[in-house]
Amino acid sequence: MNVRGWLINLYPRSWRERYGDEFEILLEECLRSPFDVLDVMLGALDAHLELSQEKNWRSMNMINKLRSTILFVFAAYIAFIIAGFSLTGLMDDSQLVPLTRSNPVLSASWTAIEAGSVIGLLAIVIGGAPLAWTIIRRAFTSQRRDLRLLLVPPAALFLLAAYFFGMVYFAFNSHVLDQPSPLGRALMWGLIAVFVAGAIASTAAVWTLISHTDVEQETFQLMGKPATFKLYEFAYRPAVIASAAMIVMFVSTIIWGRLAYSLRPDLFTGNMGVMMTSTRGSFAFTLIVMAFAVSLACIGIFRARSSRMKS
Amino acid sequence: MNLADFGRFSDPALLILSSLADGPKHGYGMMNDIETLTGVRLGAGTLYGALTRLESAGLIKAITPTDRRRPYQLTAKGIAALREQLTLLQKLSSAGLKRLPAE
Q: Is A220 helix (H, G, I), strand (E, B) or coil?
């Protein structure tokens, strides 16, 4: 063990769990003289004398980890939505629809995907509503212009998504895309690119907004009575449910894809993906994005679980 | 919140709060900023001794790290405490300067 490790081990365990990682980086950068070593040793002694703060350290550690968990699951869910659009695009006007209806296993796995998407959406909305409301309110009531500016990307994405789906609905109903021109295709690809970039920018903005908003709990008036929500703890269970829904959807998609391919491999050789892209490529993209999203959500949940189990 | 409650960490606590007044910083950033501002170099043990007390008191909070370093920022309570403390110091310094004989 090097000097830094030895010095950090002088601190109480609960302190190390909360500050150990960041403190080690600081020591890498500033431990230069015997006086610095002595200062750290005095700091360790002080931390032992302040063991009454132990509960505080544990609780702060848990709040930080819960906040990270909520952010990880939110980012994972946005990625999953993009994968979901890709999968739905694959099914639109495809022979895969009657095939899925005719086979009970295919039908059951597709139903599991649909049920997972509804449960996941509900969990995100229910768990995130108090947090979103509090953050929007704080952004407008505080004097911080930077927080208000961070609301712009998600609001712009919402408007863009409304416009995008309105346009797609119109395009399919008026059959203008039956014989798309190169310009029309380029415009559609541009819109898809803007939509994906907007989703990424919005996720980054919401992530920064939550990280920079000084909020852990909020009191709401529910049916005339005040109700206090510990925002991150309240959002934790829905985040677990949303993550479980994403896992179910991911596994169901694998089952569905594998069985559909074994029954009708010819349906995967054409160009029935989003914007007439390769069906096989589109399905592979869907699975890769889903796998990424599920991994992200699992990392978030396990971080919070390990913290909750220790406290 | 009175920083005098922080005992031997009250001065480092004020330096940390002042350093965070213009935005979030991680430990090494605060250390360098404080040295530039005041010429005082806080040791890592002193810095984190004060920082843990400030976080426990709800005057600062950790924000999501971008790398292994964890940045901290002032809370609303921290801004109020810093303002109160600096106003007090401002009154003290102007009163003290007035009492000094002219050079």
A: strand
- Over residues B41-99, the pLDDT tens digits come to 899 999 999 998 898 888 998 887 767 788 999 998 899 999 998 998 899 999 998 89
Same domain, A25 and A96: no
Instruction: Please identify which residue in the block is written with the tokens 């409650």.
Output: B5
- Judged against a pLDDT cut of 60, whether residue B33 lies above it is answered with yes
**Identity of residue A229:** F
Contact B48 A19 (CB under 8 A): yes
User: How close does chain B come to A211, measured CA to CA in Å?
Assistant: 5
Q: Report the percent of chain A where pLDDT is more than 70.
A: 86
Tell me the three state secondary structure of residue A201.
Answer: helix
Give pTM, 2 decimals: 0.64
Interface test with B, best of A211, A216, A218 (most B CBs within 10 A): A211
Q: Domain B3-99, CATH 1.10.10.10 — does that match?
A: yes
Please give the span between the terminal C-alpha atoms of chain A, in angstroms, as a whole number. 27
Pair A99, A220 in one domain? yes
CA distance B3 to A307: 30
Helix-strand-coil percent breakdown of chain A, rounded to 5? Answer: 85, 5, 15
- Each domain of chain B, given as residue ranges in start order, spans 3-99
Interchain pair B49, A46: CB under 8 A: yes
Torsion angles phi and psi, residue B2, rounded to 5:
-100, 125
Is it the case that residue A298 has pLDDT exceeding 60?
A: yes
